[in-house]
Amino acid sequence: MNPGTFAVAVGVGAVAGLDCVSVPQAMIGRPLVAGFLGGAVAGGPLAGLAAGAVLELFAFETLPVGASRYPDWGPAAAGAGALAAQRGGTWDPAWMVGIMVVALLAAWLGGLSMILVRRLNAAQLRRRGPALEGGDARALAALQAGGIVRDLVRAAVLTAFTLAVGERVARHVALGWRAPRAVADVAVLGTALGVALWSAWRLFGQGRPRRWFAAGAVAGVALVAGLLAW
Amino acid sequence: MPGFRAVLARLFTIQAAFTYERMLGIGFAFASEPALRGLGRRDGGSPAFRAALARQARFFNAHPYLASLAVGASARAEVDGVAPERIERLRSALIGPLGSLGDRLIWAGWLPACAAIALLLVACAAGGWAVVVFLVLYNLMHVGLRVWGLKVGWRAGVGVAGALASPGLQRALEVVAPLAAVAVGAALPSVLGWYPFGHHWEVFAAAAAALLFAQGVRLLQGRATGIVVAAFTLAVVVAVGMAW
Hints:
Chain A is mainly α. Chain A has helices at 3-21, 31-41, 45-59, 73-84, 93-127, 129-133, 137-176, 181-204, 208-229.
């Protein structure tokens, strides 16, 4: 990846990571969106969308509830989208499985890094404690700005990690892959869909939603049959 | 409401200085500040302004979108000169209901529904339009809730609890869960039809792998999350694929 594309992709990932908690929580950081944007800056929006759609299935597992720990998908998906676009429109399952391993690791690290940012915010809060107790509006603004800058840097570093490590890993896997390509395809979608299925079951597997979920699944299977026949 | 636009814009940063000690408290006060300026902000602020701001910066936690309801209500209470203890009780009383409502309405309802609709559109070859539809659909509810919450909170002041029982909100709660269930139910199998498999039999292999993997994640529940298990599984697949 050339340095210009790398830098823009890091910028996209930073904004996507910032969106998750700090500003503006508009779901720009959802894998589907961040993957598409990452792919777009690397010249392959649809390849980025494909990577984002797979990560979106994984993302069904965790809901971004308040103080709970959850992965940060934005930087990971933006990086994965940009890397997926590197194959110039050719679907390479081995390349994709390499990207996914690193993207999942990055998303998990993203969750841990959010805790670090919250602790740094708390340290700044303690320093500004007296001003805050005195109702100083400037102290509030400084705390907000500090939190945003820390989160932005965190997300940028995470995106750079995904891009740098992901490209090396994906290239290594693609060059060394010996198994039939079906193994990589089935593994990537099987794990992603498996996580999504389990998460959907936890959300909708009881009471009245179960019937709605089953009705939707029937419609979805009919759609797949139609798509395959077509 | 004085400074409505400024308060609304600042609400989008309500989690920017998130800490485990005060949760959304700092963002809450930062968002409230333009509405409190009527208490006297010149020369660093009047004692009433500074006391109100310090109060608003204390611990608060709720769903970030619905926090606008609490921001509007407590800012109104401060401007109306309600007793500080009553304002603190109001803020505390809103934490649980707003958190629970937001979790059910947005995190477990609207977000999965919109994501599933977008995945369905991807499966139907909508390309980038899937992303556009997702962002527009999701943010209609997101921005709408923030605006509604701020207006209703300011109008109701300390009587804001009644707004939580509004028929519109209750109806939205009734509709969103079935909508999400149908959309997610339809989206998950549809991904099998979209994914660029080399052969048709791979669709069935992936479906079987997904069912097996879901069962594995269920068995490991509490010991490892799905994405950790998936990352480990894919790393093993990489090793096997390269040593084949």
